[in-house]
Amino acid sequence: MNARRFAAGFVAATAWFVAGAAAEEIDSAAARKIIDRVIEAAGGREALKRYEKPFYMVRKGKALGGTGWGEFAIKVTTWLPEKDSIDQESTFNGKTKSLGSRFNGEKGWQIGYSSRGGTTEMNAAAVESTRTRLYFDWVNTLLPLDDAEFRLTVLDEIMVDERPAVGVKVSRMNQKDVELYFDKDAMTLVKQVIDYNGRLSERYYDDFAELDGLVYPKKLVHYVAGNKVTEMETAEFKFLDEVDEAIFEKP
After folding, report:
1. Of the options 2.40.30.110, 3.40.50.300, 2.50.20.10, 1.10.260.40, the CATH number for the domain spanning 5-248
2. CA distance 39 to 42
3. What gap in Å lies between CA 215 and CA 149, rounded to an integer?
4. DSSP class per residue in the chain
5. Residues 6 or more apart in contact with residue 44 via CB below 8 angstroms
6. Contact predicate 74/87, CB 8 Å
7. Which of 2, 23, 100, 119 has minimal Cβ neighbours within 10 Å of its Cβ?
8. pTM of the predicted protein model
9. Closest to 95 in 3D by CA, of 116, 61, 67, 74
10. Beta-sheet pairing, 214-224 with 199-211
């Protein structure tokens, strides 16, 4: 290849690269505008900062188990992005069972899951799964997305419950992508799509309430691989000014 052809090829390749980078930057800016509107609809950045504190929730609903549908009540204390304490009581076929877990950001323990009952330490897979779940919940609080380490891109518009929803894909190094969809008019989070443990997980949110200016969904319906596995309502929700961190340790 002579020098003139090489130069022409180099210029063309450089132009393509610059044009692609510019398009990506425009797409990212459009995605961030969507997130800005969503943050405003959720109550604003000051209200969302409450998620930096630990919070307590009571949720009740139905879940699909090996023997069919059963009822459950779950109490969760969460300190995002890395700690939670869960106590659950489930009833299937008239039999009630108590389960739970603790996670301190590095290690975790499961209560009642072993065939012998009692408390067992989470293995590496369970630790990673818990970290991933907490990361997805952290992304849902929106404010972390202000950080430049999150790459945002616009998704195609879809319909959720016969209403148009705009979408943003959230990408971060060493983390799985999260797809978030927001009602086009209300700009509330209505759907989250993730790959969780190799299976498609879709969470739908509805029945929005307000807590001191913070808008949050009370209803959650969860599908895995296209099958509904959980539906629940938030019965209680409060932020905690202080928490005894021993609740995240081995019970």
Report:
1. 2.50.20.10
2. 5
3. 26
4. --HHHHHHHHHHHHHHHHHHHHHHHHHHHHHHHHHHHHHHHTT-HHHHGGGGS-EEEEEEEEEEETTEEEEEEEEEEEETTTEEEEEEEEEETTEEEEEEEEE-SS-EEEES-STT-SEEE--HHHHHHHHHHHHHHHHHT-GGGGSTTSEEEEEEEEEETTEEEEEEEEE-TTS--EEEEEETTT--EEEEEEEETTEEEEEEEEEEEEETTEEEEEEEEEEETTEEEEEEEEEEEEE-S---GGGGS--
5. 213
6. yes
7. 2
8. 0.87
9. 67
10. antiparallel
Q: What is the mean pLDDT of residues 105-121?
A: 90
Q: Name the more confident of 55 and 14.
A: 55
Q: Return the amino acid letter for 247.
A: I
Six-digit token string for 67: 């023997």
Quote the pLDDT of residue 139: 97
What ranges do the domains of the chain cover?
Answer: 5-248
